[in-house]
Amino acid sequence: MDRRKFLAGAGIGVLAAASPISLSAIENLVQPKPRKSGRLNLSFFPYELKLRHAWNLARNSRTTTPDVQVQLEYDGIVGYGEASMPPYLGETTESVMNFLSSLDLTQFNDPFKMEDILAYVDNVAPNNRAAKASVDIALHDLVGKIMGQPWYKIWGYSAEKTPNTSFTIGIDTADVVRKKVEEARPYKVIKVKMGLDNDKQTVDIIKEMMPDVPICCDANQGWSSKEYALEMCHWLKERNCLFVEQPFDKTWVDETAWLTERSPLPIIADEAFQRLPDIVKFKGVYSGINIKLMKSTGLYEAHKMVTLAKSLGMKVMVGCMTETSCAVTAAANLSPVVDFCDLDGNLLIANDRFSGMTVENGKVTLHDIPGIGVKLL
Q1: How far apart are CA 57 and CA 48, in angstroms?
Q2: Average pLDDT score over residue span 173-186
Q3: Alpha-carbon span 12 to 187, nearest angstrom
Q4: Which residues pair with 70 in a beta bridge?
Q5: pLDDT band at 12 (very low <50, low <70, confident <90, very high)
Q6: End-to-end distance of the chain based on CA atoms, in angstroms?
Q7: Whole-angstrom distance, CA of residue 323 vs CA of residue 70
Q8: Could you read off the pLDDT of 233-272 as tens digits, one per residue?
Q9: Which of 32, 75, 164, 176 is positioned for an S-S bond with 188, CB 3.0–4.6 A?
């Protein structure tokens, strides 16, 4: 029996998710027949994402997002990845391409040694999280395709347990907000960007047009008063709000802990939270975390984040940047085991290169496509 049939039939992926044993160790236990010799070959190119609407936040506005598209090839099989770079990450098209150019993945002849490959990528240079995520996503896509299974199945997750995704409405004028709410009618949760002086007006418009739909609030570090934030949390609670995301500047640790202790709503970390070690230090400061692949360096670390956060009793949200369906679908493989989901980044752009996960009746819908679950359009 070859490796692909064994893994698909024996559920080795479930073992990997349930046990701390590494994928490389599992490979050694299986003792598969040797594959034909090959090397990992990385290629990439810049790709600017065009937004359908101006993306207005408390601290900036933009109509495009820089992006780098990645391919990782092994013995004729290609895995896809991407790096999306909103301004606050501090990465650029140039920095991502320079980082990727510095990698030598041809030294690896076995894509299943994911732990070794990704450790090498992570140690080449500090930071560069989106650049590292692009390789991680492509590697997961490649390995899943070799195994003939999507990653949510490899991890042992059920596609039936995916949550509804929120649809994001940015800060804008009342007329534009109304237009965006009209476009959002197919969705079951609305995410509201806040942080300016028209926060309540935006919520009132949404509740007027979609009174029964729950909302969630993302202040993007825009609130500057503990008292105002607590007042807003109570006001939002009365309007069927599910949680408040990143209310204060990411450096306001004590102020956030004060709010979390008193708030009737969960307080979720976004900009303040980046990688796995942040989870333990934010226990008690935030109620939960927003995992984004571009912050976490990809799926390998994000999967560990879900396990650790849940073990500490924290809420888990999976989110995204403005991205193509490549990265959004990759993140969607984690959605069956999270509390909240905000995977609409691909819906906000006008030039997607992929088809992948879909939103059906507001619900994240995973398809039985090997790898991360995407196809080139």
Answers
A1: 20
A2: 90
A3: 35
A4: 44, 81
A5: very low
A6: 34
A7: 13
A8: 999 999 999 999 999 999 999 999 999 999 999 999 999 9
A9: 164
Write out the two tokens for 347. Answer: 């819906």
Please state, for a pLDDT cut of 70, what percent of the chain lies above it: 88
Q: How far apart are CA 11 and CA 96, in angstroms?
A: 36
Amino acid letter, residue 226: K
> Rounded mean pLDDT of 281-297?
97
CA dihedral 226, 315, 345, 169 (to 10 degrees): -40
Query: What does the pLDDT read at residue 53?
Result: 78
Distance CA 78, CA 50 (A): 25
Report the 3 state secondary structure along the chain. Answer: CCHHHHHHHHCHHHHHHHCCCCHHHHHHHHCCCCCCCCCCEEEEEECCEEEEEEEECCCCEEEEECEEEEEEEECCEEEEEEEECCHHHCCCHHHHHHHHHCCCHHHCCCCCCHHHHHHHHHHHCCCCHHHHHHHHHHHHHHHHHHHCCEHHHHCCCCHHHCCECEEEECCCCHHHHHHHHHHCCCCCEEEEECCCCCHHHHHHHHHHHCCCCCEEEECCCCCCCHHHHHHHHHHHHCCCEEEEECCCCCCCHHHHHHHHHHCCCCEEECCCCCCCCHHHHCECCECEEEECHHHHCCHHHHHHHHHHHHHCCCEEEECCCCCCHHHHHHHHCCHHHCCEECCCHHHHECCCCEECCEEECCEEECCCCCECCCEEC
Distance CA 340, CA 243 (A): 9
Type of residue found at 197: D
**What average pLDDT is seen over the chain?**
89
How far, in Å, CA of 355 to CA of 375, rounded?
A: 5
48-70 pLDDT, tens per residue?
999 987 765 555 567 899 999 99
Which residue, 129, 176, 202, 163, is CA-closest to 339?
163
Residue pLDDT, tens place only, 305-355: 999 999 999 999 999 999 999 999 999 999 999 999 999 999 989 999 999
Distance CA 285, CA 98 (A): 36
CA–CA dist 124, 113 (Å, integer): 17
